[in-house]
Write a structure and sequence with these properties.
Blueprint (H helix, E strand, L loop, with lengths): L1 H5 L6 H11 L4 H19 L5 H24 L2
Helix pairs in contact: 2-4, 3-4
Length: 77
């Protein structure tokens, strides 16, 4: 979580529940690389928006969409 803070990402308890739910059926050895890419998606989604709340929501949305797609591919959905 410290890494997220250094990137300006504010992970909320609901975010953690979503991430845990998405990763529950994914092999543990893939979690680190998935989370690294998830954080990069979040940062990319934040872009250059000046408003912090909007920036977090844009980043969160992009990263969550990416995570759903990634998990779906891994699980064959």
């Amino acid at each position: 979580m410290d890494y997220c803070k250094t990137k300006g990402i504010e992970i909320l308890p609901d975010d953690m529940r979503f991430i845990e739910q998405m990763l529950k059926d994914i092999p543990d050895d893939l979690h680190k690389s998935i989370m690294r890419d998830f954080i990069e998606e979040w940062c990319d989604g934040m872009g250059r928006d000046a408003m912090s709340l909007l920036k977090q929501n844009l980043g969160r949305r992009k990263a969550n969409i990416w995570l759903r797609a990634k998990v779906g591919k891994i699980l064959g959905h």
